[in-house]
Amino acid sequence: MFRKVLIANRGEIAVRIIRACRELGVRSVAVYSTADASSAHVELADEAVRIGPAAARRSYLNIPNVIAAALKTGAEAIHPGYGFLSEDPYFAEICAENGITFIGPPPGVMESAGDKATTRRLMADAGLPLLPGTTEPVASLDDALAATGRIGYPVVVKAVAGGGGRGIAVARSPEALRTAYRQTRAGAQAVFGDSRVYLERYLESARHIEFQLLADGFGNAVHLGERDCSVQRRHQKLIEEGPSSALDEQTRTQMGEAALRGTKSLGYCGAGTMEFLLDDDGRYWFMEMNARIQVEHPVTEAITGVDLVAEQICIAAGCRLQLGQADVQLRGHAVEVRINAEDPDRGFAPTPGTLTEFRTPGGPGVRVDSHCVPGADVSPHYDSMIAKLIVWASDRRAALDRARRALGETTVVGPGIRTTIPFHQRVLDHPAFRSGEVRTDFLPRHLGM
Amino acid sequence: MFRKVLIANRGEIAVRIIRACRELGVRSVAVYSTADASSAHVELADEAVRIGPAAARRSYLNIPNVIAAALKTGAEAIHPGYGFLSEDPYFAEICAENGITFIGPPPGVMESAGDKATTRRLMADAGLPLLPGTTEPVASLDDALAATGRIGYPVVVKAVAGGGGRGIAVARSPEALRTAYRQTRAGAQAVFGDSRVYLERYLESARHIEFQLLADGFGNAVHLGERDCSVQRRHQKLIEEGPSSALDEQTRTQMGEAALRGTKSLGYCGAGTMEFLLDDDGRYWFMEMNARIQVEHPVTEAITGVDLVAEQICIAAGCRLQLGQADVQLRGHAVEVRINAEDPDRGFAPTPGTLTEFRTPGGPGVRVDSHCVPGADVSPHYDSMIAKLIVWASDRRAALDRARRALGETTVVGPGIRTTIPFHQRVLDHPAFRSGEVRTDFLPRHLGM
Amino acid sequence: MRDSETTVDVAGVHQLSSALRAVVESLPGPVRQVTVRAGECSIDVSWDAPAAVTAPPPPGPVLAAPWEESPGEPDDGTLTVRSPLVGTFYRGPSPEESAFVEVGDVVEPGQQIALVEAMKLFTPITMDTRGRITAVHVADGDMVEYDQPLIDYVPVEG
Amino acid sequence: MRDSETTVDVAGVHQLSSALRAVVESLPGPVRQVTVRAGECSIDVSWDAPAAVTAPPPPGPVLAAPWEESPGEPDDGTLTVRSPLVGTFYRGPSPEESAFVEVGDVVEPGQQIALVEAMKLFTPITMDTRGRITAVHVADGDMVEYDQPLIDYVPVEG
């Protein structure tokens, strides 16, 4: 096991990783920007190194400073969390060159998983069902328009380098496709430095089902059941739960086995997530592979009892996976809601500010992951997450009742700060959500959002 | 199900019960003393009624005011929590006379369970192993001295009306027995209004193992595994965990079946706990039956996933127990530590005061049950509990590491306030505790306390 | 069982200490000298420089109290009779009969002015001193809590 | 129950003493004079200078910050050169050679005064303006963080 791990992240996920390190007896090194000098991850870690000014590009994304901090503090490994450097194969390579273990998959695997076109090809070879689309990036607008003859409308244009709902646009007609093609290419070039795009049939209404996976460096891999993340706004997840009310045991087994097959064909190692869409006929389609720990990982932790971050660290340290597939038993139901400093009434616009009051819920089946304390700043420089609230109960109905109860106990007050709490309460009270009939079009269809 | 329940208690257990009510869709009524006017249970409940001044005898133990509050607010049931009126058969009777459901066993059963001599006789009849002792209360000091001829020393003098470690004294010689006999009788008369005492062989070093039970009004009963509460100070529990590292599956099954047999022979209904001592030869002995929800119930909730307070309310509402014995599956390991405003360096003397800072831990496997918030007063009028910290992990070692991590994140600051946190950290770090070799003499033997 | 019995009312001093801080925090402007006393306990503090005042913490969610919390005695000499128990408040001996008192009445010490019923036990509410009734805060048949203000009066010289 | 009765309540005074300390710690600002009383016992203290307020309890794990957080610029015109990156600080081009600057040296704009190395890249630290070196905060070979004060100087007219 490592003696010391550097956490190249901030916010709740940095706190989450520091907690895992402490429980494993591993020393933790926080890195922080000037804006985060009094942040919880700095306070909780055993050591802390300032790496740059507030702007993420000059601090949390500043590879030389992160690496220098690891070398100087003697950290043997770096955990990148999610976002920032977590899916950057170049960063993983630099870690390796400096003799530092990157806690994640090997750089080559990250590159394959990050290139959506490559992944699609590999998954097709592994026999995973893919939505009709182009297996290669489209070379021109004419090629794109021609491909729709085979694929049909609506169609989604996706950046090869995108992922997590970024770099995608839906087109329902040839005119719309012209615009979507141009815009997605331009945006992908600007954001990812890679303008390649591919096309895929778009499902207007489907379930977003993702399988959590763990694979070690010895060829062992297990899946830990699924999360249903169908409540989305503009392809961004807002509420996640598990198990999905849409899967029976047989479908779960089939999809889990497919996910494992795909994972192994990538040569995957570490924690990862395979995302699928499930259509109304019960058919599932591979979407993408996420080569990182995800925001919603606690849902899986709650229903399986497995500490995913501890497993990530152990796998990276070269330990053999102790879990077999038969050891993974799903129990009860879990729901995660993201409490963000955003105004649901103004298009979820971020509302940064200082928390004058911050009280989190407690009691049975309630977990809060947060880096915030009373007096903390929700900085405009970073994402607007204040806390993740995860509840567990013996069944879905009890879990939703518990989530409602826990949200009612949550107090977040600060000048100008609005939160997503009222939005979550609306969803939790909605008959369609309670019935479990939730698809990716839930917000426009049921809440007019 | 009830529409409205009154909670005749305060502190963390009142909050716990209000949470259960809210999740069940039941309205809650808090009662409070003048000292608790701004306490969390008052704030969280749907309604609140002031029932008296700070002194518990004139507020939380004031039966007419509690009953009047229930009648006037239209509460159909009263949950007594633990302590206060929870084991008072007279209060349960008055509830019945006023058409209010007492959430607990029927008054007759409470009386039997509260009378230690009666319980001993009933348990002996049901075939439960009892330590050598007097089956009837001893009539005189001479009788007591004579009985030790058969029982042997050390012997413990117990008040018939006692329980939970109150009203007991150990004697290791005839001289000590004279004192113990007189003092226990006098104390029992003063505290319980009942001077009867009985004798029992005293085990200097044993495991305190208790089984959690649920029984409905239709003859169905299950046990939910055991809790090990061997870390005690003067017969008061300080740390509780489950499962016990001293039980193998066979012993667990045997003891669980014995506990169920005893429960049924009492005609028990509701949630209850049967306490045993386990000696070094692996023999177990019935100690007492607790006819209430206990402080340490979250340990069982963590390893079974069953919401015991919700079950209590459902059983009292006349619902059938939905759980069969086969549905009760123990998973992982849980530990509870009581964070009290007490100074471990000065004999655990209470240190009341105002909390200027209060920060609870979060993250995976951590549950906090507390009525405290920053600015709250830890009142000298009531018990000194600030919070219960319950952690769960996949095995005992991980649970202890997690408990240590979580205690390290806990901040309790106030003028003059000291807490039991440093004590718990000492125990958690102690090799004997970590090895699982913990008996009721742990504190004197290993910590010199 | 305690190791040591408390010989002085330390708990009382602690309570007084938090009350003292609340007093200091609740007052506008820096204070120089404060004395608080309750029964046997008292605390007396003076500052060298005026105490830097910490802003009082926000009061948090509002308590669902149906009556004014510790309204304090106004300066005009009005006193308040409060409920000694939880129950139903009655202004008269029965619905058919008139109220024990009306606003403006002058009432003698020991005279009954209301009735609180709980568990079929009727507790008479009586005057300690002679006074003129100035307000009745509770309607006939309403529930009252412990310590809830029932009736205001102004003492009247005998 | 006590083993022995004392004629004066020394234990009570001891208990009151800790209550007194709690009172002082809970109050804002330095106090000059405090009296606490509980029943028969009382303590009366006055300070010559205002009471040194007890330091607040340590704020959890100590941050391993090797340098003063935002020390601010002192009033004497001293300016500070801070590290623009994370790395190892070197005072000279190599261990064999002498330091770029010593305290007391007057240095010209653009002149190199130190070196920070990270990932085998050497970043020269240079002066913006003419100045006299007044302090070097970091030892040769020590790690520096982003924004850490490296060298102080006082501007000197050209």
From TrEMBL, chains A, B:
Q: Per its record, what are the GO molecular function terms?
A: ATP binding; biotin carboxylase activity; metal ion binding
List, for all copies, the residue spans of the domain called Biotin carboxylation.
Answer: 1-448
Tell me the superkingdom of the source: Bacteria
Kindly state which keywords UniProt assigns to this record, in alphabetical order.
ATP-binding, Biotin, Fatty acid biosynthesis, Fatty acid metabolism, Ligase, Lipid biosynthesis, Lipid metabolism, Magnesium, Metal-binding, Nucleotide-binding
Q: Does the keyword Cell inner membrane apply?
A: no
Q: Name one GO biological process term.
A: fatty acid biosynthetic process
- Which EC number(s) are documented for this chain? 6.3.4.14
Named in its record, the pathway it takes part in is: Lipid metabolism; malonyl-CoA biosynthesis; malonyl-CoA from acetyl-CoA: step 1/1
Q: Name one Pfam family in it.
A: Biotin_carb_C
Looking up PROSITE patterns in the UniProt record yields: ATP_GRASP, BC, CPSASE_2
Which top EC class is given? ligase
The reaction(s) catalysed by this protein are:
N(6)-biotinyl-L-lysyl-[protein] + hydrogencarbonate + ATP = N(6)-carboxybiotinyl-L-lysyl-[protein] + ADP + phosphate + H(+)
Q: Which InterPro entries match?
A: ACC_Biotin_Carboxylase (IPR051602), Acetyl_CoA_COase_biotin_COase (IPR004549), ATP-grasp (IPR011761), BC-like_N (IPR005481), Biotin_carboxylation_dom (IPR011764), Biotin_COase_C (IPR005482), CPAse_ATP-bd (IPR005479), PreATP-grasp_dom_sf (IPR016185)
Where do the ATP-grasp domain residues begin and end? 120-317
Question: What is the purpose of this protein?
Answer: This protein is a component of the acetyl coenzyme A carboxylase complex; first, biotin carboxylase catalyzes the carboxylation of the carrier protein and then the transcarboxylase transfers the carboxyl group to form malonyl-CoA.
Q: How does it assemble?
A: Acetyl-CoA carboxylase is a heterohexamer of biotin carboxyl carrier protein, biotin carboxylase and the two subunits of carboxyl transferase in a 2:2 complex.
Q: What is this protein called?
A: Biotin carboxylase
Automatic annotation (TrEMBL), chains C, D:
GO BP terms, alphabetized:
fatty acid biosynthetic process
Instruction: Provide any one GO MF term from the record.
Output: acetyl-CoA carboxylase activity
Identify the metabolic or biological route this protein is part of.
Lipid metabolism; fatty acid biosynthesis
The protein's superkingdom reads Bacteria
Please provide the record's keywords in A-Z order. Biotin, Fatty acid biosynthesis, Fatty acid metabolism, Lipid biosynthesis, Lipid metabolism
Name the segments for region: Disordered. Answer: 52-78
Q: Which PROSITE patterns match?
A: BIOTINYL_LIPOYL
One GO term describing the cellular component: acetyl-CoA carboxylase complex
The record's annotation in InterPro entries points to:
AcCoA_biotinCC, Biotin_Carboxyl_Carrier/Decarb, Biotin_lipoyl, Single_hybrid_motif
For this protein, the record's Gene3D superfamilies field holds: 2.40.50.100
> Domain Lipoyl-binding: where?
78-154
What this protein is reported to do is described as:
This protein is a component of the acetyl coenzyme A carboxylase complex; first, biotin carboxylase catalyzes the carboxylation of the carrier protein and then the transcarboxylase transfers the carboxyl group to form malonyl-CoA.
* PANTHER family the record matches: OXALOACETATE DECARBOXYLASE ALPHA CHAIN
Q: What is this protein called?
A: Biotin carboxyl carrier protein of acetyl-CoA carboxylase
